[in-house]
Amino acid sequence: MGDFLAENDPRIGVKEELEVREPRKYKVLLLNDDYTTMDFVVEILIHVFNKSETEATLIMLAVHNEGKGVCGLYPAEIAETKVDTVHKLARQAGFPLKCSMEGE
Ligand code: TYC
After folding, report:
1. Could you tell me if 38 and 64 are in contact, meaning their C-beta atoms sit under 8 angstroms apart?
2. Which ranges carry the Adaptor protein ClpS core domain (predicted)?
3. CB count in 10 Å sphere of residue 33
4. pLDDT one digit per residue (tens) for the chain, 104 residues
5. How far is the CA of 26 from the centre of ligand 1 (A)?
6. Can you give the pTM of this predicted structure?
């Protein structure tokens, strides 16, 4: 402080145009399999992806019928953490449930 003449002070008179940009988002997908129970997938969608019971049931059924489905869109680091959390919970429960992410 006090080291700049007012006319040269970079802190004065500079109109900063700060562009606010959203971070790139990634889709987190659940994949169907023949062994994971429907109830377990619904619990995952409620607790990991913050879905209501109704939404969770609809997404689970879409994955069951179509092979895969989107659980949500998140910045890279959050998407990676969700994938890891799903795999950890599935492994602990003895299910082969798979989750992946793909760029928007
Ligand atoms: N297909 C499983 C069953 O019939 C249910 C299931 C749904 C499994 C979604 C995985 O991501 C999944 N028990």
Report:
1. yes
2. 22-100
3. 15
4. 444 445 555 555 556 677 888 889 999 999 999 999 999 999 999 999 999 999 999 999 999 999 999 999 999 999 999 999 999 999 999 999 999 999 97
5. 22
6. 0.84
Q: Could you say which DSSP state residue 6 is in?
A: G
As for the ipTM of the complex, it is 0.99
Nearest to 30 by CA among 78, 68, 72, 76: 68
For residue 60, report the distance from its CA to the centre of ligand 1, in Å.
7
| Atom nearest to 37 CA in ligand 1 | 13
Domains of the chain: 21-103 (3.30.1390.10)
Token representation of residue 42 = 């619904």
Atom of ligand 1 nearest to the CA of 64: 7
Helix (H) or strand (E) holding 45: helix 38-47
Q: Residue 20 C-alpha to ligand 1 middle, in angstroms?
A: 40
The encoded tokens of residue 90 equal: 């599935």
> Cα(71)–Cα(27) distance, rounded to whole angstroms?
7
